[in-house]
Design the sequence.
């Protein structure tokens, strides 16, 4: 098991290196020169060149990239050009907000999808099944930002119950988490349903029923435990989706997370900040997927046995 | 004796032969009401999009500002109302269908072509080549798709072609993985072995023997991919990184209507509804196709 974890962790290194190169390269291609735009209008060519050197933006692409990577390994992502603060500092300051949003959105998604999926599977081919499948299909097809805007319209503008944006009180997270959670719920419902349908047909459930266990007990104790395994596996990728979805949702709700920070950085051509944020975001996402894989092995003894061979 | 052995008459056999794969799939597809609903919605959307190109003049009806008419609520004359520049929202939505549809379809064509080719090669040859292709895919899967899309749009500038390429590239790994997974069970079949021994070139084996037998998951992925592509495109447009204004792209219309949400919510409501219905149509079709292509899965 430890060998597997080490192997997976080592495999992440080339992925992160490649991601950082792709992102650095793309950001370098973007038109618009931040250095010139930061300098006064009458700055001389020499002054601009000095500034560029000071910011570490001189020299050919490859040279700059290697310098960047050397600093990255030391945990230094450079200085944000527009905020004049270290990128790492800005990122770490905002990151907990994004995590909080992703975490609560997954809780929301689970609350919606697990009961709905179970109901659909236990009432297979009845109207309950039909309604929950239609609902999840609509959930998958809905643009999340649109749902967010409609929720703002209803709950903050018309009813005045919840704030429409920002993060001033604990109530602020409700709407963004609800939006992002609903967006994830569609897929989770379908997976819960099919996983439950599979488990329901197993022999051990027939045995349980045959020995007189109540139907409720069969579903919630015997079936659900086994049906949850695939759901836990895809929680990792759901978390990844939630982080990706956060890009738009943070913008809709003016949520002070890293996703919105990244979009702003790209739009203002703050390349060090944008590159740093995307790289950190990616590293984190990959780490999460690794952790989920490990957790998965612990939940399901069958998987653990596979690795120890 | 002979008569007993042959259970089917010659006519019946002829009839059976006529039932090609496509017909078989269509026969299964027709059975699902939701899949048919998806198809009908899509046909309606495409028809409306074509009609809109004919009856509306881009300069006059779609982008020309008419301040006298601004922010009119939905009425008999403007059934979806007018926007902050006095343009008819219904006309703009119908006309804008072509952007979402073409971005969705072209970008999936790009990712399907590149991704499936890579996946077929990876699955067929295996070994080192497979490793390299899969690892490369992993790199791109590691970056959240919207962020990768934004980075590409920022690097190459905003236009419909860049948008198609950006979304197309973002979804390449998905197709590569699907195609590879579909090839694996086919790769070791005896008929592939037979083709190899009789000296057929690898290229021909891949395209005439492997591909047709591993097509089903790719076809499903294509339909679902169009749905995803349309959603991603609308997200990018919403963030101001899609097709440049004043083109009536749905995501951009939705985004520009946001400032007026309190009193003129129809400005955001209708474009969003249009996106949802279109995406829903593709998702319903994808679901129906999956069941139709592999009836065993339905159980």
Sequence:
């Amino acid at each position: 098991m430890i060998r597997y974890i080490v192997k997976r962790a080592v495999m992440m290194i080339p992925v992160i290196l490649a991601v950082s190169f792709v992102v650095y390269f793309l950001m370098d291609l973007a038109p618009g020169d931040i250095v010139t735009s930061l300098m006064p209008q009458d700055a001389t060519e020499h002054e601009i060149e000095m500034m560029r050197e000071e910011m570490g933006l001189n020299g050919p692409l490859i040279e700059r990239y290697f310098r960047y990577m050397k600093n990255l390994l030391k945990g230094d992502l450079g200085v944000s050009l527009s905020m004049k603060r270290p990128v790492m500092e800005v990122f770490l300051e905002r990151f907990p907000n994004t995590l909080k949003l992703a975490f609560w959105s997954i809780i929301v998604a689970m609350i919606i999808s697990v009961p709905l999926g179970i109901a659909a599977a236990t009432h297979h081919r009845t109207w309950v099944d039909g309604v929950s499948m239609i609902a999840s299909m609509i959930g998958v097809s809905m643009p999340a930002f649109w749902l967010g805007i409609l929720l703002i319209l209803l709950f903050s503008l018309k009813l005045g119950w919840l704030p429409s944006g920002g993060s001033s009180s604990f109530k602020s997270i409700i709407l963004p988490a609800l939006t992002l959670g609903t967006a994830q719920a569609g897929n989770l419902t379908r997976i819960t349903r099919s996983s439950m349908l599979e488990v329901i047909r197993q022999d051990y459930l027939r045995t349980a029923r045959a020995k007189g266990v109540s139907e409720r007990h069969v579903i919630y104790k015997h079936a659900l435990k086994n049906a949850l395994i695939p759901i836990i596996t895809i929680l990792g990728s759901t978390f990844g989706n939630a982080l990706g979805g956060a890009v738009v949702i943070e913008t809709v709700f003016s949520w002070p997370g890293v996703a919105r920070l990244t979009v702003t950085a790209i739009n203002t051509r703050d390349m060090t900040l944008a590159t740093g944020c995307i790289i950190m975001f990616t590293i984190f996402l990959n780490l999460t997927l690794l952790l989920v894989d490990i957790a998965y092995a612990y939940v399901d003894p069958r998987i653990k046995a596979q690795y120890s061979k | 004796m002979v008569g007993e052995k042959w259970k089917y008459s010659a006519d019946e056999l002829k009839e059976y032969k006529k039932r090609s794969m496509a017909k078989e799939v269509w026969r299964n597809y027709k059975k699902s009401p939701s899949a048919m609903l998806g198809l009908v919605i899509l046909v309606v959307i495409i028809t409306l999009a074509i009609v809109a190109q004919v009856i509306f003049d881009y300069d006059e009806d779609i982008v020309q500002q008419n301040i006298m008419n601004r922010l009119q609520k939905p009425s008999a004359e403007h059934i979806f109302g007018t926007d902050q520049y006095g343009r008819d929202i219904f006309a703009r939505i119908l006309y804008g269908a072509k952007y979402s549809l073409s971005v969705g379809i072209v970008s999936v064509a790009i990712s399907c072509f590149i991704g499936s080719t890579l996946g077929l090669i990876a699955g067929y040859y295996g070994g080192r080549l497979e490793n390299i292709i899969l690892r490369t895919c992993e790199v791109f899967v590691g970056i959240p798709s919207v962020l990768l899309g934004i980075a590409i749009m920022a690097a190459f500038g905003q236009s419909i072609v860049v948008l198609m390429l950006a979304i197309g590239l973002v979804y390449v790994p998905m197709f590569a993985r699907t195609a590879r997974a579909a090839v694996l069970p086919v790769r070791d079949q005896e008929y592939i072995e037979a083709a190899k021994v009789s000296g057929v070139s690898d290229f021909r084996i891949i395209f005439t023997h492997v591909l047709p037998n591993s097509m089903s998951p790719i076809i499903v992925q294509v339909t679902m991919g169009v749905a995803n592509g349309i959603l991603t495109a609308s997200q990018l447009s919403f963030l101001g990184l899609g097709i440049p204004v004043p083109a009536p792209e749905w995501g951009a219309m939705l985004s520009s209507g946001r400032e007026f949400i309190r009193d003129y919510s129809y400005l955001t409501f209708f474009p969003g509804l249009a996106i949802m219905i279109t995406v829903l149509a593709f998702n319903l079709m994808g679901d129906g196709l999956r069941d139709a292509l592999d009836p065993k899965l339905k159980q």
